[in-house]
Amino acid sequence: MDQTDALPYAGLKVLDLSQGIAGPYCAALLGQQGATVIKVEPPAGDWIRLLGGAKEGMSALAVVNNLGKRSICIDATQAEGRALILKMAQSADVLVENFRPGVMAKLGLEYATLAADNPRLIYVSITGFGDSGPDAHKPATDSVLQAKTGMAVANKDGAGRPRRIGLMVPDTATALYAAQCVGAALYARDAQAQRGGRGRHLRLSLAECCAAFQAGPILDDFLFGGEYKPPITVPAGVFATRDGHVVLATLRDAMWQGLCRALAREDWLAEPRYASAVLRGRAAEEINREVAAIVAGRDTQEWALLFEQHDVLFAPVQDYAALRNDPQIRHMAYFGETEQAPYGKLPMPHAPGGARNGLLPAAPRAGEHTREILGEFGYGAGDIEAMERSGFVIQSGAGH
Fold it and tell me: Are both 80 and 111 inside the same structural domain?
């Protein structure tokens, strides 16, 4: 059996009208589970294509968030373009969009209109702050969401200054929640197939997904904010070695004892002020300072051997190049490859839980499959040529 046939979403049709990260990555995850994904882009292409370093409109984020899709460029500001999208939506199982509230209704592509022709459609709307309220129409970027939802405070530095986490956490978390919601909606629709199996309108916002993602810290702040709380683990944090850095933690007394032996500080085992996790929490600054001084005296690999010998919870701090070459990561084949124009072969993490064999499908250029997709929707060569002359569809390489 071909591996594609065995994937859970094989045969599922997804129409991805979204741009950026949250919507496109949600659709890409569905595609990596077997769905056929058509990405509908404006004539200029998805704005993510030029964010950061990029060649020929293929930034790293454009590649990762669009693996395995086919792309068609449609000008939805023209009536003919909107009519084409309406036609495509009639046979879709899932549609993903992430425009500001009201945009899809203005285009005549809102859920009620599409569901009237395709009642089984799962329609996913992703907004920044929700579809109503005082912030509904405000722009929402990664930095804005990290600031607004407490994420930057949770990542504050030693001086208490809030810091943005150096990853697109709000968008990525939202994509994961959206993909989960799609799976639940598809299950509900198909479980009710004998009674019509209707779709539904799924509404998610980056703000609510950031809140859900931080549920534990938010509750902890509500219950104990303002009170003194001992650190979860002491020592804890990143410690400089002679040639790099390691992370250390001690979750149980046995781990603390192993760390003391690894550091050749068995005398700490008899220190009354360090006799329990609570007491060590009160001496956290002192312990961290002492541990840092000791750890700085050896190379990372020397500490790795000692910490493993004494069953200490630790990890060397690695950059992405080291991650790709990590023996455990390579053993588990967590990375595959994709043949991606214009770069050639690129390393690419597999979707967790999926197959790990063969090349991963590449991401498309903007409008790369316009003619191919139009042909599948019943348009002949003459029709497609007329559409291109009218300017409401664009094939990659024509006018780009």
Answer: yes
Residue closest to 394 by CA, chosen among 72, 31, 68: 72
DSSP character for 368?
A: T
Predicted confidence (pLDDT) per residue in 292-309, tens digit? 999 999 999 999 999 999
**106 in a structural domain:** yes
Phi, psi angle pair for 89, to nearest 5°? -70, -20
Q: Same structural domain for residues 210 and 271? A: no
Same domain, 18 and 66: yes
For residue 163, what are its two tokens? Answer: 């810091």
- Structural domain containing residue 313: 236-318
Tally of CB atoms within 10 A around 271: 14
Amino acid 66 reads: N
296 residue type, one letter: A
> What φ, ψ does residue 70 adopt, rounded to 5°?
-115, 145
3-state DSSP assignment of residue 54: strand
Domain boundary among 318, 343, 378: 318
- For residues 183 and 112, membership in a common domain is answered with yes
Residue finishing a domain among 284, 318, 352: 318
Mean pLDDT of 234-263: 94
Tokens 């799976």 correspond to: 183
Which residues are within 8 A (CB) of 251 and not within 5 positions of it... i.e. 6 or more apart?
A: 233, 313
Q: Which two tokens stand for residue 364?
A: 């498309």
CATH number at residue 150: 3.40.50.10540
202 bridge partner residues: 124
- Per residue in 149-170, pLDDT tens? 999 999 998 888 999 999 999 9
Q: In the structure, what pLDDT confidence band is assigned to residue 396 with cuts at 50, 70 and 90?
A: confident
What dihedral do alpha carbons 86, 91, 94, 98 form, nearest 10°? Answer: -10
Using the predicted structure, report yes or no on whether residue 192 has a pLDDT greater than 90: no
Handedness of CA 382, 37, 15, 172 (dihedral sign): negative
Q: In terms of Cα–Cα distance, which of 231, 329, 337 is closest to 288?
A: 231
Pick from 373, 298, 366: which is nearest to 92 by CA? 373
Tokens read off for 117? 């022709």
pLDDT of residue 397: 67
Count of the separate structural domains present in the chain: 2
